[in-house]
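Structure Section — protein described below
Tokens — whole-number codes for backbone shape
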Amino acid sequence: MPARPKAYILDSWSIMAFLEDEPAGETVGNIIADAHENGIPLMMTTVNAGEVWYILAREVSETAADQSIKDLLELGVHFHDADWKLANQAARFKAIKKMSFADCFAAALAVHHKGSALVTGDKEFKQVEESVKIQWLS
């Protein structure tokens, strides 16, 4: 069995799968449970949280988006602000990869938290597999 990561980095793809009860959402729920049972931090950037919020606000309502962000915080997901160190790493990915800027922030957070696993099913992240440990969802 592979070693547990030092932290789980969640991107908007994984969170949307979880919130919308998609098949991969069950795996995300299991990862959240594993994190709680084993004291593993759950993290995402405020940029990725903002992406979740605007998707839900567009698809459902601002009220639902607000509630979902509150629920994530209550689940123990820690939101990391986009300081210059994180933004610079995200910009470095964006300069050479064909990824959304928000995805670059998730990858940057994983780089800054060595030993972490970026939890996603978004194939854009294949471009950064050499720099980031990915825990793929299907």
